[in-house]
Amino acid sequence: MTALTETPPEAAGVPTPAALKRKTGGGLATYLVIRFLLIFPTILILVTMVFFLMRITGDPITAALGGRLPADQLAERIHEAGYDRPILIQYFEYLGQVFTGNFGRTISDNRAVTEMLATFGTATLELAVNSLIVAFLVGIPLGMIAAHRRDKTADAGLRIFAILSYATPVFFAGLLLKLIFSVWLGWLPVAGRASTTTEISLTGLGAPTGIYWLDALRSGNLAAFWDVEAHAILPAITLGLLTAGVFLRLVRTNLIGTLGKDYVEAGRSRGVSEFRLVTRHAYKPALIPIITVMGLQIALLLGGAVLTETTFEWKGLGFQLAQYLTARDFVAVQGIVVLLAVIVAVTNFIVDVIAALIDPRVRY
Amino acid sequence: MSTQTVPQIERREPLWVRLPVLSHVLNSVGIQRTMLVTGLILTGIFVLLAIFAPLIAPFGFSQISDSSGDFPTQEPPSAKHIWGTTVGGFDVFSRVVWGAQTAILVIVVAVALSIFAGVALGLASGYIGGWLDRILVVVADAVYAFPSLLVAIVMSIVISHGQSSLWGGILAAAISITVVFIPQYFRVVRAEAIRLKAEPFVESAKVIGASSWRIMARHIFRNATRSIPLIFTLNASEAILTLAGLGFLGFGIEPTSASEWGFDLNKALSDVTAGIWWTGVFPGIAIVLTVLGLTLVGESMNDLSDSRLRARGRKRTTAAGAKGAKPSPGASAGEAAGHAKSTEAGPEAGPAAGSTGHEGGQA
């Protein structure tokens, strides 16, 4: 998992901006422009790699339907889809399509990949945001406590929690939570994003956003809202705790670093309370590296989302990915993977921009 | 783990004291030692389970009947099947034990492959430089930034394309994991190689007329790979999680060719809804304990090599005076070594190495 990086942009092996900057002596604007342009090679490389890797072993139609169709029909469909042409021509055609936002049609259920991405993307977005909230609420305060009570019992306990949250695969955590809260205690629903009746009433809504709690609120149906929220709790906690563990460690390490600084000592000698020292003085400088790392958390979060969604039958991109993988529908898989690559690249860009805005050292 | 006198720091210590893990145990105190020893014990149990699986497991991993007839399905834990049976009639305890074997095979193959490829690429990239370096760095970064599970999924589609015998499945899983890890080794080794390239001893080797190949293989390789054992332990735990994740998504190894914890958890999902807990809980705990053991070992070793994270406990003992009476030349020398390392490693290697340490020092 790429989650655990603490790499400032320069050290991330992107020599170009730093080198260029030294030559031109440019400021923030140059940095931003170059950093923005760097998104494209990253996406291009990923798209190219995914395309060729998926094609090395054969065309998508044989993979999906091989053995189920007679050979001549299969050949006909391959010809129709253009998969019998030279691979390079297909590649450039594919690139052109991707840049115009056309990802083709899925093979197993014959829908436009773009539409599929939009439908399930909102569900994944909802899950990701929910779990980030959990991660922030749990991870950051606990990290502050751990740093404050360094090497005491509380710290040891919290570190064990952090290590356990890393060591527990999300799907096992999900399975346990499900077992306890849904099956044994019966407090929360077992799976899905909403119960069937709610789902029907929500899809009947005009211009749905796809984000269920928002739709429920808009329809003014409070029962539906609570139903949606009840379904969202367990997945959010499952995925949130995974990320919370990482946040906790990060906050702890960075805060310990800043708490030892002279200016904190100076504040202490002037009688600033320990609580205020942690929450006001030491916390902000410690935030800068944390923000950088949080960008990289998005990769962990998306990877975790795939597993969490499968566990809770949360019908988002991850759940669909698993379905399409089983159906060997590689056009759809490719679409999802490319979308996630774009999300990761763009998030990393945004994070680098925020880091540059906060910390002048990043841009020199 | 010995309580005997801490060795004097001379040029020559006995070899066994200088061995990576042992020296870490000797140099640790307090909570850190507890963590390290706990990790070592858990890892030890895992390895023993894997090696002696045929002796420990009462049944085969795909056995559904014995001389007394077919095994019951979804039976709660009983005297014969101490952890119950699955919906297919497999004995849960046996499958968990055999799963250790699969996991260790995958880890060994995956980590060996990625160290080999990562180190080779990193050396070449760092030492030769130029366009090769640039391309490799960009590609490694792109792969590194991507969710590792997805990389592994794409790779396993490429490699196995569905069919999965025991070795086919293990190789597919291992290679998929390898691709995820290569960038990590690559970055660390590359940064070191770049630094070492400018060292006097490399230049003198050049002057003598040593070939690039020889310089890379003999002079740089030995110096650039010091932090590899650390990454190894941290990656081993990630390898298990990735394998389990692949298995959970159905991209693992068929249940009839080997036992795999992630796959069993996938099958257990539907059981849970019916209140059948034993099919999921036991393989899950096996994963957690194994990853926990490996992580504890890796983390402790990482902390011990990083003076900023380690120094604390010892300083206090020294300051408090004779109480623990263990502060020793060995410790302070280790600290110095830690310092030397973090300064030498330079700005690039620091964060790169830290990236695999969950708590690696902030740059």
Can you characterise this structure?
The complex is a heterodimer of chains A (364) and B (363). Chain A is an all-alpha fold and 364 residues long. Chain A folds into two domains: 46-98, no CATH class; 122-363, MetI-like (MetI-like fold, Orthogonal Bundle), CATH 1.10.3720. Chain A contains 17 helices and no strands. Chain A has helices at residues 15-24, 28-37, 39-56, 60-65, 71-81, 87-99, 113-148, 153-167, 170-184, 196-203, 212-219, 222-259, 262-269, 274-312, 317-326, 330-358, 360-363. Chain B is built from 15 helices and two strands. Chain B has helices spanning 15-18, 20-27, 30-51, 53-56, 92-128, 130-145, 148-160, 166-197, 200-208, 212-224, 228-248, 261-273, 278-305, 307-320, 329-356, and strands at 65-66, 69-70. A two-stranded antiparallel sheet of chain B has the order 1-2. In chain B, a hairpin with a 2-residue loop joins strand 1 and strand 2. In chain B, helix 3 (30-51) crosses helix 13, helix 5 (92-128) runs parallel beside helix 8 and helix 5 packs across helix 10. Mean pLDDT of chain B is 70; it is low at 311-363. The interface between A and B is large, with 74 and 72 residues.
